[in-house]
Amino acid sequence: MPGHLRAAAGIGWVPQERDIFPSLTVEENLTVVSRPGPWDLKRVYATFPRLHERRANMGNQLSGGEQQMLAMGRALMTNPKLLLLDEPLEGLAPLIVQELLRIIDDMVGEGSMAVILVEQHAHQILPLTRQAVVLERGRVAYRGTSEALSADPGLLDKLLGVAAH
Q1: From CA 68, how far away is CA 90, in angstroms rounded?
Q2: CATH homologous superfamily for 3-121?
Q3: pLDDT tens by residue, 122-136
Q4: Is 13 exposed, middle or buried (0-12, 13-18, 19+ CB in 10 A)?
Q5: What is the pTM of this model?
């Protein structure tokens, strides 16, 4: 679905590849997609202070973690009802991962939008989520509460392929 139709449908998407505009500044990346609502430039900068510091930098001048923050901020600027995050922690430094986990936890806890996370690092994400779905080769291998899955380390290890089946 083209980005403008996704935004009109109330869907914010942060692809694994980030897909920021490398030749636009941070601020231009954010404002080019903005739609009316509670997520505006001020709120995105409050959520991601690094972006405020780098607002005049071009997208291609940012670190991988900053690009991920920019991709998330850009999706939020569309003021979605549903936020899709595809592998938001992939390839990021541990400090950035912790910062993004805190931000994701705040967004989920706020409850103003639905958040769907696709993430391989289940141990980091399960504490932030209410429901979990584990897919294996395109089929649902588990569907239930995140709390129940976290409470059963044997099942979690089996589903993640950590233990022998």
Answers
A1: 9
A2: P-loop containing nucleotide triphosphate hydrolases (3.40.50.300)
A3: 888 999 999 999 988
A4: buried
A5: 0.88
